[in-house]
Amino acid sequence: MELILIRHGLPVRRDDSSDPDLSVEGHDQAGRVARWLAHEGADAVWSSPMRRAVQTAQPFAAHLGHDIALHEGVAEFDRDSGSYVPTEVLKRENYEAWLAMANGNLDIDVEAFSAAVVGALEEVIASHPGQRVAVFCHGGVINVWTAHVLGLAPRLFFEPGYTSVHRYMCSRAGQRNIVALNERAHLRESV
What we know:
This protein is an alpha/beta fold. Helix content is 39%, strand content 17%.
């Protein structure tokens, strides 16, 4: 089966909630990724229950006439932090905190987070043999799943762009392969 992970669009900053809505730019990005993927279709659309992921999934699911299935296991690691600062804002305003995050110094159990993500995505894979499934999620989710597929220790090691597309082939026999990471052609001005 083909598993497609899509990171959410740009959310607004929230100092009082770790579950923000998409920004105006984020909604534009969601529309662009929906149009980009529309020609491929999908047999199912899944999402993190967090607002920014669901709002990113909505245009694609609507285009296909699918409902969005939610899975708690693909929610972001910071879901209970109480605030949300986009990574580029964090880098600009608090470089030390951004650097700590980039170096994997997080106040979370990365192994437990990875186990939850891998378990959730394996459930999605098992539910859709031979199909193409789109899962709208978060940068941390994409990182730990990719590390898992590569056989690396769970970690955050690259920066998926907003509404970036990440493709994996997943066989019934358990093989997991990366097809593409960080596709962002849909964000070019001419698209």
